[in-house]
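Hi support team,

I submitted a single chain yesterday and got back a structure, but I'm not sure I'm reading the token output correctly. Could someone confirm the output below corresponds to the sequence I sent? I've pasted both exactly as they appear in my results page.

Thanks,
R.
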Amino acid sequence: MSFNLAGQFPNVRLRRLRHSEALRRLVRETHLNPQQLVLPLFVRSGRRVRRSISAMPEIFQFSPDELLKEASSAFASGITTVLLFGIPDAKDERASGAYARNGVVQQTVRLLKKQLPELLVITDV
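Hi R., thanks for writing in. Yes, this is the structure output for that exact sequence:
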């Protein structure tokens, strides 16, 4: 194998990554589609709440009913996974909102699974 040391293209083109279909498939260009995306959503208690987050332009805290609308729109666009971040009304040392039966995240998960059973819901604790 000889290479031109003056910074020109090699005299021999290495083709080891084209050897088989499996290798070509492995190194092929990456393609993203909506099913590969995860939409982060922030949920807080209440009804008809859509509160902007000043540190994150165009990002909002939603009440469960408003979050359902947002998730439904995303699902219709092909985004099939959401990640919920709960904003508790009050915090305590035991983080009891994270495991409370009627915590805002738990309520929202039940609502989403009832209305959008095919939606994959990930929760942050």
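A quick pointer for reading it: The first helix runs from residue 21 to 27. Let us know if anything else looks off.

Best,
Support desk
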